[in-house]
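Re: duplicated header lines in exported structure tokens

Our pipeline writes sequence and tokens for each protein into one text file. With two proteins the header for the second block appears twice in some exports. Here is an export where it did not happen, for reference. First protein block:
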Amino acid sequence: MTKFPHIKFPYIRQDFAASLVVFLVALPLCVGVAVASGVPAELGLVTGIVGGLVTGMLRGSSLQVSGPAAGLTVLVFEAVREFGLPLLGVIVLATGVLQITMGVLKLGRWFRAISVSVVEGMLAGIGLVLIAGQLYPALAAKAPESGPGKIAGLPGAFLDALGDGGALASLALGAGTIAVLVLWKYTPAKVRKVPGPLAAVGLATLAAFVLSLPVATVEVHGLLGSVQPPPLSAFGELASVGLIGTIVAFTLIASAESLFSAAAVDRLHDGPRTRYNQELIAQGAGNALCGVLGALPMTAVIVRSAANVQAGARTKASRVLHGVWLLLFAALLPGVLSYIPIPALAGILVYSGAKLIPVRALAVLWRGHRGEALILVVTAVSIVAVSMFEGVLIGLALSIVKTAWEASHLKLEVVDKGSGPVDAYLSGNATFLRLPKILDSLEALPQDRPIRVDLSGLHHLDHACRTALESWAERHSDAGTEPVKVTAV
């Protein structure tokens, strides 16, 4: 045994203090995400515990913190509604295995190649659905199932609440929670040592108890009672196309959110940089264990990670310790959860959803890159109107088309001296996306004059363009003029 144990953990004091801050931030978020996802509140704590004790121990990003994320709430809710809670474990386990596989194959960095507009559009769409969905529990009402239904039903839900004392009390509590979160940064520095989410939930819980407000509270089942590993029979559903699509969506979104979070956390500190493949393996290991336990999926969460860095954390010990505190709370004080009002958790998630909508980024994109702004908006609207998976696919497809279109720079220069052959010079990239422009320009050339086409300036000529050029040359030559002369690329 070493004589000076503090040498082995030189930053234990800073990490210990930071872990308490992260625990206080994570606690209400773990519970809120679970309730919004339609699963027992304790499962959110299980995912937070795994994120601290398992993912926190592994290599990757030393300071970012993992747990249940608001960004996956909508997808989890849809999956539980469509497939049932037992199959959630199968989905999360398969997601973890895929993440580990991608990390081993060193595909972690490729997730950073996903268009930022698609990712921000995805988060914006999630934020919109999350806000619309959580306004219903704040109104003590049941939310419609579809995204458009949630938005369309809000005016009626507000009107119904006006004549219901319980609904008005619930709305006031949710609105008060949001107000505390918004105004917390203006409180004195000593007061701000208490994290905003914890203060908001604590004040709402106190108000509901003291005023005896008729609002719904969290149902408590006990930690062990809530953990339900998926039955073996559930794995037979992996042959379902719908389930596979959901697993792909979980994997894509969880991985992208975690790795984008890692890049953001790296900008907040001067410590070791993230190793993306190892971080993907760490996230996969955590999700695989969460799947075995039947808990929620995890991602790295920027809110908790930023709190960890700002609280002075220096090593991964802080995130591991935050998992210890979550475990002790879930084991020793589970009954405390039953006092937390549902409207307060709804208020926290409405606030979180609003922060997912990149208003400033959209304004910047609109001024300088309107194509990217359009991708962001279309992705978000598609997620609201259709579903998470289809919305992300639409965004990715638009991003690919835009990139291909911009890469297809093509210039056609025609030199016509009034007599003799007409010279046409093509330069750039001739792809099928520019085919209409090429054909319109060539077919406009004189039919009764010899044509010389110079393709030596092309960097790329795809099969569709080559075939179309050959067909045009044959048609032009059939008109009785000299055959078209082509300088090959």
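Second protein block, exported in the same file:
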Amino acid sequence: MQFIPVFVLMVLFFVMMFGIGFILNMLMKTTWFPSYLFVVVILPIVVYSLWDRGEVSFLSHLASFRVVDYLTGLAGLAGAVISGWAIQKLRKSGFKMF
């Protein structure tokens, strides 16, 4: 496992989920919706779409993921959570978004 590509991938997923979460928070006027969306919708869709149902069981499929996959998922989740935190702090400071 090379460190630089993994780090770049983590930063990209963090920034992508932060940006998407920030925009969704402004448009929908919710704070934690992007975090729930990431955990409840996006992660299961990705895991299910990568699963070869004819070859291995679901638990074997989950065990086949490597550290890189989990680090990328955690970076995306962190971006979604921090976007909710940032919107919450901005709203408490008096900023009105849409």
